[in-house]
Amino acid sequence: MTQQVIHPMVKMQRQVRSLVESNLIKPSDSLWKIALLYGDEWPHWKKELLEFGFTTQDPISDLLAVEAWEEE
Q: How remote is the C-alpha of 54 from its chain's centroid?
């Protein structure tokens, strides 16, 4: 039995989707809004988002629209 490793961005994307479904944030909110929820972990996630071409001004819906996270 082989175990597939989930990309860390997939985990983050799932957490953010859960926040949207719980109505804590809206898909139209900017990504910077999740900084308030991630606290001390935000610098790491911000760096990851920037490496994937996002800005903190992008809507959360852009993050949720990603179907596959691949490193270059």
A: 10
CA distance 63 to 41: 17
25, 60 Cβ separation under 8 angstroms:
yes
pTM: 0.85
DSSP-derived secondary structure letter, 72: -
DSSP string, 2-71: --PPPPHHHHHHHHHHHHHHTTSS-TTSBGGGGHHHHGGGHHHHHHHHHHTT--TTSBHHHHHH------
Q: What is the pLDDT of residues 16-48, one digit of tens each?
A: 999 999 999 999 999 999 988 888 999 999 999
Alpha-carbon gap, residue 51 to 17, rounded angstroms? 20
Cβ(60)–Cβ(16) under 8 Å? Answer: yes
